[in-house]
Amino acid sequence: MKKNLYKLTAFLAILVILTPLGLLAEGNAWGEWGYKDFKEMIGYIPSGLKRFAEFWSAPFSDYTIHGLGNIFGYIASAIIGIILIFAVIYLFGRFVSKSKNT
Amino acid sequence: MHIPDGYLSPQTCAIAYGASIPILVIAAKKVSKKLDSKTVPLLGIFSAFSFIIMMFNVPVPGGTTAHAIGGTLMAIILGPWEAVLGVSVALFIQAVFFGDGGILAYGANVLNMAIVLPLTGYFVYKVIAGNADIHSKRQWIAAAIGSYIGINIAALSAAIEFGIQPLFFHTANGTPLYCPYGLSQAIPAMMFAHLTVGGFVEAIVTAGVVIFMQKSMPEILTFQTKGASHEEEFI
User: Fold this and answer.
1) Would you call A28 and B64 a contact, using CB atoms and an 8 Å cutoff?
2) What is the CATH architecture assignment of B10-228?
């Protein structure tokens, strides 16, 4: 099992290095445009859309990291994302095992 | 398929949260029953895998992009409820830290990508794979078809959420308040992107990983059944 976990982690590490390939595709996914783009697309910005579009401002918006270029920012984002995911799942595991013991 | 904030009305977001939260609670309960020191790292790895493959944007003819999600894969390997949780965690980190998908729209994104996708994909996989041997061709073919259908049903679900906005939420003179594109635009656009590109990327990733596991780590493919027997021993 341990050997498999190492293999899977190595596989993940390779994917992290390759993530900038995901930057090659131009344009946005359908329905994921910035709210300002609507001005050009339909001539106006729907008022509710504008009101809620910036409800939250993410620290690494669009997988960019201040001070890093696109490519390194994207790789660093991948690493940060993985660490955060492991943290959340580890905490969930801790919480569950604690509540099982009590 | 990550719906940003502002595209869906607050009412739609509330309903989506209302549908997603109880399912997440069920998933958390089901997963915690068989959670052990082996499941936690695997759940982490596959949730991280889902996060990473969503970063590989693939161009769609017409100037948009799509990406794989890996929810059906997680369901096949770890179990459907593990997939619900694993994709939800990835979506949560994407929304909070990377602004990929909204916070208000998180419930809708969970519904589409973390609930509809893995549960549909897994169901189709199960129907096709039946009791086929873990090393058989039928296993990865079932994985490919299941994941292709899963991501497309998820895309349809997102398209419906987008498309009903101008129908229900507009000003007195009919100007849309949120997503301005109706069902007749949202459904063809979302389905085109996923039937032609997104679905195939998802199917290749899913079948590819299943084949890789068949060859080099079959014990992970039997993880679910082992996990279940482990649980029985426990009881």
Assistant:
1) yes
2) Orthogonal Bundle (1.10)
Q: Per residue in B100-128, pLDDT tens?
A: 999 999 999 999 999 999 999 999 999 99
- Residue A81 to chain B, least CA–CA distance (Å): 7
Contact B49, B69 (CB under 8 A): no
Neighbours of B60 (CB within 10 A): 20
- Which residues 183-202 of B are in CB contact (within 8 Å) with A? 186, 189-190, 193
Q: Taking a C-beta distance cutoff of 8 angstroms, is the pair B34, B232 a contact?
A: no
* Phi and psi, residue B170, nearest 5°: -150, 165
**Residue B68 to residue A86: CA distance in whole angstroms:** 20
- Pairwise CB contact (< 8 Å): B52 & A81: yes
Neighbours of B222 (CB within 10 A): 13
CA dihedral B152, B158, B163, B167 (to 10 degrees): 140
Q: Are B8 and A57 in contact (CB under 8 A)?
A: no
Instruction: Give the tens place of pLDDT for each residue, B44-94.
Output: 999 999 999 999 999 999 899 999 999 999 999 999 999 999 999 999 999
B72-99 b/e with 16+ CB inside 10 Å = b? bbbbbbbbbbbbbbbbbbbbbbbbbbbb
Q: Which residue has the tokens 């445009």?
A: A33
Q: Which of B91, B52, B169, B59 is nearest to A88 (CA)?
A: B91
Q: B82, A96 in Cβ contact below 8 A?
A: no
B178 within 8 A of B169, measured Cβ to Cβ: yes
Name the pTM for this structure: 0.94
Domain ranges (residues) in chain B: 10-228
